[in-house]
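To: structure desk
From: M.T.
Subject: fold request, one chain
Message: Could you run this one when you get a chance? Sequence is below, nothing fancy, just the single chain.
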Amino acid sequence: MRKPAGWATRLRTRWLELILLIGFVGLLVWLGFAVAPGVRSLLPTPAPTAPLAPTQSLSPIPAPTPAPTPVVSAGKFDGRSAFQYVQAQMAIGPRPMGSEAGRKTGDYIVAQLRKNGWQVEEQEFLYRGVPGRNIVGRAGQGPVALIGAHYDTRRLADEDPNAALRAEPVPGANDGASGVAVLLELARTLDKSRLSNEVWLTFFDAEDNGRLDGWDFIAGSTEMASRLTVTPEMVVIADMVGDRDLQLYKERNSTPALVERIWGIAARLGYEGTFLPTAKWSMLDDHTPFLQKGIPAVDLIDFDYPYWHTTQDTTDKVAPESLERVGRVLQVLLEGD
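Reply: Done. Structure tokens follow.
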């Protein structure tokens, strides 16, 4: 066995290897300091991230969607649509002045006017201690044209052929609901840009309880006429205009020139069989208080209605075609003839 050489002997024989090793290690150390910074500079440095402000969001916030603008259905007067207004009133029930049903009917009228872009004014009043309300929808510019109808119904059917039913209320399909229906359909279909007048669609309360317990007829329209601060150019009342056999005679108290103007429009529209050329009735109606103030006024009324002030004044007695004829004549009158 060979004896291992001592460390001094090994050092003398491998001095060259030792020098090379030390040189190599030195080279590595030099490379670490000189090259590494260059290598680090090739790595992307992330940009500093600012903290989100309280109002920022990680996802975009969509802009709010504008509310849709109500579209008013201006166009030709539609009798079928008008008939739906009759049905809506009849669904409420009899509507005497001061009743809950009368209040609901007034609220319904206000809602329909506002829905169709009309400015609404409500005129509250008392008659014999009972609260009443006239309602006016306004649109257009120029001299005032008041188109009116009453929305209350009679408390007692005192003209009913059956004496046992005379304590019942009148349903008021034709005597009440028909005129209101014509006005509400005008509110929906009139082209406001074509109006040559400031139109007042006027709904009277307290019209229909005359001769009951000392009451008068036309209390609501009398109240409105007494409060006028402007003088209308004309007043047209639509009362009992939905009869299936509609025959509108010239009412004797109405202003002749305005009567001829309206009947002339009806003739041009081919409605001579409905707007008859002769005079017949003299009526105390909602046009009367305005006539008394010297305002031209016309009463459109078919008083040859066998169900007047009876329990048989029901929806089946009203025809969409009758409502349409009256409505289209008034539409031409207001939009230009």
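Reply (cont.): Strands lie at 119-127, 130-139, 144-150, 198-204, 234-239, 248-250, 275-279, 297-301. Let me know if you need anything else for the meeting.
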